[in-house]
Amino acid sequence: MKILILSRKRSLYSTKRLREEGHSLGHQVEVADPLKCVLRLSGGEPSMLVSGRTLKRPEAVLPRVGTAGTIYSIAVVRHFELMGVPVVNRSAAIEQAKNKMACLQVLAAKGIPVPDTLMSRYPRDLDKLMKLVAGPPLILKLLRGTQGTGVIFAESKASVESMLETIWSLGEDIMIQRFVAESKGKDIRALVIDGEVRAAMRRIGAEGEFRSNIHRGGVGELVKLSKAYERVAVKAAAAAGLDLAGVDILESSAGPMVIEVNASPGFEGLEEATNQNIAKMFLQCAVRAARRKR
């Protein structure tokens, strides 16, 4: 089967693993940088050019959409949809997942537990706002970010005021979120594929680091999820409209609390922690998408 991976860099761990595993499974796997794809509409018919040549239609597309060129990359995914090519996660779902507040709004509407969250551009009554989310301390999050970037731990009112003032002056929107103290420095990453939790790990941040991201020095350990955590992870992926998702969950005293749903989850730490072939799971998901289209 001809499978196309959309990735900015061939050297990324996930991209290399997907290529290796695809070839070992007998698939024809190609990689294209989405920012180098030319989208064409002519006579109402969509087509795509890569390296100056019309792209031969793949049987399935696996998008790996990062932070660079997100809007363009999502447009590329949408173009494949117009061309009738099955994609693992549709463009609208990827776009929604990339906006942290939009994603939390959808989750909350489906009754999925999320941390107490505010978003405001109005600097008045900051004391009252902080009390609504039981702070300080508080977590501040830019709407777009990955691997822990754009996430700030604010310990005092003064630091909250200073950070909000700076971020607002740059024209950025930011979420103000309750700090779940019992989960400081750790969370759970659950991989949900086609409505089933296929792998999970607990991520533990480096010493002195409140973020648990592997790319920030955190480590992953194998974890067996309870049925309650599995149900929340599956519901979160479904609410976000994602066939394949990395669901990040805090272990709060009130139970599982979803903080993010990732449409293009990295899996280097997950393969290491679980000793499972995650790349193979991704490719099998793409194959199923192609067969459903047939």
What structural keywords apply?
4-stranded antiparallel β-sheet; Rossmann fold; Dna Ligase, domain 1; 294 residues; D-amino Acid Aminotransferase, Chain A, domain 1; 9 helices; 5-stranded antiparallel β-sheet; alpha+beta
Note the total helix count. 9
Taken from the alpha-carbon principal axes, the silhouette is: globular
The largest beta-sheet arranges its strands as 13-12-11-14-15
CATH structural fold name of the largest domain: Rossmann fold
CATH architecture of the largest domain: 3-Layer(aba) Sandwich
The unreliable regions are none
- Determine the strand fraction and express it as a percent band: 25-35%
Provide the succession of SSEs. Answer: EHEEEEEHHHEHEEHEEEEHEEHH
Question: Structurally, how many domains make up the residues?
Answer: 3
Output the CATH class name of the largest domain.
Alpha Beta
Biggest β-sheet, characterized? 5 strands, antiparallel
Distance between the termini: 13 Å
Helix content: 25-40%
Alpha-beta classification: alpha+beta
Overall radius of gyration: 20 Å
Summed over residues and divided by their number, the pLDDT gives a mean of 90
